[in-house]
Amino acid sequence: MRGIFISYRREDAEGQAGRLFDDLSAHYGREAVFMDVAGIKKGLDFRRIIDEHVSSCGVLLVIIGKRWLDAVDSSGKRRLDEINDFVRLETAAALRRDIPVVPVLVQGAQMPRAEDLPDGLKELAFRNGTELTHARWESDVKLLIDDLRPYLDLPDVITPPPRAPDTPPPPPIAVVDNRKPRRGGWVMAAAAVLVAAAAAFSYFGSKDRIARDEAVRLAEERAKTAEQQRKQDAAAAAERAEEQRKRDRATAAKPPKTDSYRTAAAEQRVPVSILKIAGVWRDSTAPSNGSRIAQDGNNFQFTRWGVLSNGIQFQSSGGGTIAGQRVTNTFRTIYQTGATSAGGCAGTISPDATRMDVSCTDSLLGPFAVTLVR
């Protein structure tokens, strides 16, 4: 039997993974859904055990929350970059065997890009996924169940186990009477047989009606969910079309920019002053982390120091440029553990040059955002 394998990271989306496991188990049966590779005996190669578990499934669901891509270990290294990371091993094993892999986005997470994934997982960025939201959890799960059906050789629906039926009345006990039979005895015996037959017919007929009613109810729920989704898609498409029409009307209303217009605008252009950012800046959320900037016109050099959330100290240095309120830079970092990384940032400076909001990408830590103030 080819079932469902749920791959997730405990510190990222353990709650959503457990909830989805319960819903899928209620529909397909608990033996058809696998979530944890447990019970690996001492001395066995856990990579081979994971590969064997994944190879027996019909589809693998990768639960992706906001920390799935950037989770790090105690040394500050990204977990996905570790060759023995369980999530990496599970996902890579399914992709390598061409088993259907469905990214399941939770907590408002975004699909990871191929360039952010290690070798062996880059194919995941091109797999069509789905999203489970807290507000529409039940309808989202029902749609996911419909999408998974082609990959599984499982019964269409597992109905809840029926309650223990009421014990049908016992058949009448035949009593041997050696006395001379009285007239009309055969009539009483025939009546008893008819009563027992009617009770049995009523009992089994009731079971059939319950099964039919349950099937009708499930069919109606599926039709209702599909209709709601269709209406939501239609409303979203109409809203996008209306926004496009507004943009088209606004573009058509603008007069064409002639050469004389461009010349006049160029003559009236006022030189942009360069913002002064030299000095010491502090992280708004971690005041012990700071940066010292030395500026030369549009160019600047900086050093940065501080402590990561896991307690590891770091020191960075680099340089960049300023263009109006836009700022970009590149840097290299060395950590207390001896590890090194490189990356770059881009962001904006407030008009009064007292706040700087930048988004950065680090070869070791991945993407992160920093707000600097002074």
Structure description:
The chain is α/β, with parallel strands linked by helices and 374 residues long. It has 6 helices and 13 strands. Helix 2 crosses helix 3.
Structural class: alpha/beta
Pick out the low-confidence regions: 173-183
Head-to-tail CA distance between termini: 63 Å
> What is the percent of helical residues?
25-40%
Order of helices and strands: EHEHEHEEHHHEEEEEEEE
Q: Give the radius of gyration.
A: 34 Å
Give the strand line-up of the largest sheet. 6-7-8-9-10-11-12-13
Which of globular, elongated, flat, extended, rod-shaped describes the shape? flat
How many strand elements? 13
Assess the beta-strand content as a share of residues: 15-25%
In short:
The chain is an alpha/beta fold and 374 residues long. It has helices spanning 10-28, 46-55, 86-96, 137-148, 185-253, 259-268; strands at 3-7, 33-34, 57-64, 101-105, 130-131, 279-283, 290-296, 299-307, 313-323, 326-335, 340-349, 355-362, 366-373. An eight-stranded antiparallel beta barrel has the order 6-7-8-9-10-11-12-13. The protein has a five-stranded parallel beta sheet with strand order 2-1-3-4-5, with helices on both faces.
